[in-house]
Amino acid sequence: MSTIVSDSLDDRLATRVALEREARGWPVAELATRSGVSRAMISKIERGEVKPTASLLGKLSTAFGLPLSLLFARVEGELSRVSRTASRSWWTDPETGYRRRAISPLSDALLQLTEVELPPRARVMFPAAAYTFIHQQIWVLDGGLTFREGVDTHELAAGDCLTLGPPADCTFENVSRRTCRYIVAVVRR
């Protein structure tokens, strides 16, 4: 069992990755094989030496069989039917500035809502495997989002909502000069 004591969201995320791995009885090498992330990188993440990117976390959560939104909800850790604004923390991708925070209460493992802010000119990619066990919709609140789903490209404006198709490599991109805000709704299949 991990002995890390955590305060910040990044520290709690490092602890959660270790706890998820240990709960499955996997050594670091097993998680590396299942996720495609190197053992060295996983060890650095678990020790809090490196802040993982959103894409890398997508690979780890897929290996755990969890939607990324549920991994983040578990980081927040409060089992309640109410999710309070004051208790929700933003997580920022160190590579792109992409920010996300869980909206849904942790007690709802079926439906997870996540608020996302994608900075101007930022792009975040997730592998097809991240979508194999979920149904997902994207609802744009503000700005514009270019969403690439395999070979299909969807240009989404404020108010638009997209249901994702079969699992494919996906890219969220903001080609504009202002931040794009959107909600991701995920239901486990």
Keywords:
189 residues; alpha+beta; 434 Repressor (Amino-terminal Domain); Jelly Rolls; 2 domains; six-stranded antiparallel β-sheet; four-stranded antiparallel β-sheet; 10 strands
Task: Please describe what this structure looks like.
The chain has 189 residues and is α+β, with helices and mostly antiparallel strands. It folds into two domains: 9-75, lambda repressor-like DNA-binding domains (434 Repressor (Amino-terminal Domain), Orthogonal Bundle), CATH 1.10.260.40; 79-188, Jelly Rolls. Helix content is 27%, strand content 29%. The protein is built from five helices and ten strands. It has helices at residues 9-23, 28-35, 39-46, 54-64, 68-76; strands spanning 91-92, 99-102, 111-118, 123-126, 134-142, 144-149, 152-157, 161-163, 170-173, 180-188. Strand 2 and strand 3 (111-118) form a beta hairpin. The protein is globular. 32% of the residues are buried.
Quick rundown:
The protein has 189 residues and is an alpha+beta fold. The chain contains five helices and ten strands.
H/E topology pattern: HHHHHEEEEEEEEEE
What is the count of DSSP helices, taking H or I runs of 4+ residues? 5
CATH superfamily of the largest domain: Jelly Rolls
CATH class designation of the largest domain: Mainly Beta
Using the alpha-carbon principal axes, give the shape.
Answer: globular
Number of domains: 2
CA-to-CA gap between the ends? 30 Å
The overall pLDDT, averaged over residues, is 89
Given as residue ranges, the uncertain stretches (5+ residues, pLDDT < 50) are 1-6
The proportion of strand residues reads 25-35%
Oligomer: single chain
For the record, the CATH architecture of the largest domain stands as Sandwich
* Main sheet: strand order: 1-2-3-10-5-8
